[in-house]
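Notes from hallway chat w/ T.B., transcribed later so I don't forget. T.B. wanted the structure written out for a chain they're using in a teaching module, and asked if we could keep both sequence and structure tokens in one place. Agreed to drop them here.
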Amino acid sequence: MHHSDRGSQYTAIRYAERLGEVGGVASVGTTGDSYDNALAETTIGLLKTELLDLRKPWRGLEGVEFALLGYIDWFNTRRIHHQIGGVPLAEFEATYYNEYNERRQLQLDGVH
């Protein structure tokens, strides 16, 4: 999935065709909604600050690709996120779904 604003480059026919060629799906924000793209913009800003700007100059695209894979793993599994209780995203998500499944099972068992 590729989420973007409604810029002309993202609504062009060639863009949609290429996205389809690689099995992608377009997702565009609502018109005039500045909050719609805030999460993507924040994430890209963090990526630039915490990775790309720190390791300049890059020698090639391959180095950037491998660094990005490592950053995404670190961001999701080891980076502490204070907005969610000082735990990594993966831990927060696992806890959420464990608690959700426990509540769901209690409901199915008829326990309130």
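Follow-up for T.B.: The CA atoms of residues 19 and 42 lie 23 Å apart. Might be a good example for the class.
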